[in-house]
Task: structure prediction
Amino acid sequence: MTQTVAIIGAGIAGLAAGCYGQMNGYRTQIFELHDKPGGLCTLWKRKGYTFG
Ligand SMILES: Cc1cc2nc3c(=O)[nH]c(=O)nc-3n(C[C@H](O)[C@H](O)[C@H](O)COP(=O)(O)OP(=O)(O)OC[C@H]3O[C@@H](n4cnc5c(N)ncnc54)[C@H](O)[C@@H]3O)c2cc1C
Result:
Protein backbone atom coordinates (compact mmCIF):
# COMPACT_ATOMS: atom_id res chain seq x y z
CA MET A 1 0.00 0.00 0.00
CA THR A 2 1.33 3.47 -0.91
CA GLN A 3 1.93 5.65 2.13
CA THR A 4 0.56 9.20 2.24
CA VAL A 5 2.57 12.17 3.52
CA ALA A 6 0.48 14.97 5.03
CA ILE A 7 2.08 18.40 4.51
CA ILE A 8 0.98 21.48 6.44
CA GLY A 9 1.23 24.68 4.36
CA ALA A 10 1.37 25.30 0.61
CA GLY A 11 4.28 27.74 0.69
CA ILE A 12 7.26 27.00 -1.52
CA ALA A 13 8.59 24.49 1.05
CA GLY A 14 5.28 22.60 1.27
CA LEU A 15 4.83 22.58 -2.53
CA ALA A 16 8.39 21.30 -2.99
CA ALA A 17 7.82 18.62 -0.31
CA GLY A 18 4.68 17.56 -2.20
CA CYS A 19 6.58 17.28 -5.50
CA TYR A 20 9.56 15.44 -4.04
CA GLY A 21 7.33 13.11 -2.00
CA GLN A 22 5.51 12.05 -5.20
CA MET A 23 8.80 11.76 -7.11
CA ASN A 24 9.87 9.27 -4.41
CA GLY A 25 6.74 7.13 -4.60
CA TYR A 26 4.55 8.61 -1.86
CA ARG A 27 1.06 10.02 -2.13
CA THR A 28 1.05 13.57 -0.79
CA GLN A 29 -1.70 15.79 0.56
CA ILE A 30 -1.09 19.47 1.28
CA PHE A 31 -3.27 21.34 3.81
CA GLU A 32 -3.30 25.13 3.35
CA LEU A 33 -4.84 27.71 5.68
CA HIS A 34 -5.52 30.27 2.96
CA ASP A 35 -7.46 30.04 -0.30
CA LYS A 36 -4.32 30.40 -2.47
CA PRO A 37 -1.03 28.45 -2.50
CA GLY A 38 2.37 30.14 -2.46
CA GLY A 39 2.72 31.56 1.06
CA LEU A 40 5.23 34.44 1.10
CA CYS A 41 5.83 33.94 -2.66
CA THR A 42 2.32 35.26 -3.43
CA LEU A 43 1.47 38.66 -4.88
CA TRP A 44 -1.67 40.46 -3.75
CA LYS A 45 -3.30 43.81 -4.52
CA ARG A 46 -4.92 46.18 -2.06
CA LYS A 47 -6.15 49.75 -2.59
CA GLY A 48 -4.21 50.15 -5.82
CA TYR A 49 -0.94 48.82 -4.38
CA THR A 50 0.72 45.53 -5.31
CA PHE A 51 2.43 43.63 -2.47
CA GLY A 52 4.98 40.91 -3.12
C1 LIG B 1 8.82 40.55 -0.29
C2 LIG B 1 9.62 39.27 -0.19
C3 LIG B 1 10.66 39.04 -1.05
C4 LIG B 1 11.43 37.89 -0.96
N1 LIG B 1 12.46 37.70 -1.85
C5 LIG B 1 13.18 36.56 -1.81
C6 LIG B 1 14.24 36.33 -2.74
O1 LIG B 1 14.54 37.17 -3.60
N2 LIG B 1 14.92 35.18 -2.65
C7 LIG B 1 14.64 34.23 -1.70
O2 LIG B 1 15.32 33.18 -1.69
N3 LIG B 1 13.66 34.43 -0.80
C8 LIG B 1 12.92 35.56 -0.83
N4 LIG B 1 11.93 35.77 0.10
C9 LIG B 1 11.74 34.77 1.14
C10 LIG B 1 10.92 33.60 0.62
O3 LIG B 1 9.79 34.08 -0.09
C11 LIG B 1 10.47 32.78 1.83
O4 LIG B 1 11.60 32.40 2.60
C12 LIG B 1 9.74 31.52 1.40
O5 LIG B 1 8.66 31.83 0.53
C13 LIG B 1 9.25 30.80 2.64
O6 LIG B 1 8.57 29.66 2.18
P1 LIG B 1 7.97 28.63 3.20
O7 LIG B 1 7.22 27.60 2.40
O8 LIG B 1 9.04 28.14 4.12
O9 LIG B 1 6.99 29.46 4.14
P2 LIG B 1 5.69 30.33 3.76
O10 LIG B 1 5.81 30.95 2.41
O11 LIG B 1 5.50 31.21 4.96
O12 LIG B 1 4.55 29.26 3.67
C14 LIG B 1 3.90 28.73 4.80
C15 LIG B 1 2.48 28.35 4.38
O13 LIG B 1 1.89 27.61 5.43
C16 LIG B 1 0.57 28.08 5.63
N5 LIG B 1 0.21 27.76 6.99
C17 LIG B 1 0.72 28.28 8.13
N6 LIG B 1 0.16 27.71 9.20
C18 LIG B 1 -0.75 26.80 8.72
C19 LIG B 1 -1.63 25.90 9.34
N7 LIG B 1 -1.74 25.79 10.69
N8 LIG B 1 -2.42 25.11 8.55
C20 LIG B 1 -2.34 25.21 7.20
N9 LIG B 1 -1.50 26.04 6.54
C21 LIG B 1 -0.71 26.84 7.32
C22 LIG B 1 0.63 29.56 5.32
O14 LIG B 1 -0.64 30.06 4.97
C23 LIG B 1 1.60 29.57 4.12
O15 LIG B 1 0.93 29.41 2.88
C24 LIG B 1 11.13 36.91 0.03
C25 LIG B 1 10.06 37.14 0.91
C26 LIG B 1 9.31 38.28 0.82
C27 LIG B 1 8.13 38.50 1.76
